[in-house]
Amino acid sequence: MKVGIDFDNTIVCYDRLFLRLAAERGLVPKDLPPSKGGVRDLLRKAGHEETWIQLQGLGYGERIQEAEPFPGALEFLRRCKSRGVETCVISHKTLHPFRGAPVDLHEAAKGWLRANGFLSEETGLTLDAVHLKLTKAEKLEAIGGLGCTHFVDDLPEFLSEPAFPAGVERILFDPSGRYGEDGRWRRAGSWPQVESLILASR
Known about the structure:
This protein is 38% helix and 15% strand. The protein has helices spanning 15-24, 36-45, 49-60, 73-82, 105-115, 136-145, 156-159, 191-199, and strands at 2-5, 12-13, 68-69, 86-92, 130-133, 150-153, 169-173, 186-188. The strands form two sheets. Strands 5-4-1-6-7-8 form a six-stranded parallel beta sheet. It has a two-stranded antiparallel sheet with strand order 2-3. The protein is an alpha/beta fold and 202 residues long. Helix 1 (15-24) packs across helix 3.
């Protein structure tokens, strides 16, 4: 068994960070419920698409260390290690933001994983097991090429890609309950639910 895991919005939660970034600029009320998607929708509705792009550059780059892990994600990796289940991170993201300072987003992501305890003996996750790809096609190829038996991702459109590797069990991470059931994958609303889906038989 080998479990592949997406990074953005699957391991790392940006909800509070993006609310903070937008509130600092007076773009949204500080008491708005923390939601990256909610901030995005408000800014787009107000005609601030360019501002949203700039905030993404900050959130994924210079300010990423302020983002939080989803509850249970670290514990899941630790339990995988204790039960002999191999894990890896496979994600796709640009190397630099579309706007703002030319921060290396791949190094920023690896730094976040290190700072939050994901790269450790307890999880068994090493830098060699973190695969950050530039394109969706490369991410899909890595899932199959690395021999994943399971893959956890927050985007149903990615899990439904025609090129998604056959035979890999797909798990949709849906903590906000935005999506309905789909026969192509199993849905989990939290990391403890992911754990029950994957490790119940281990």
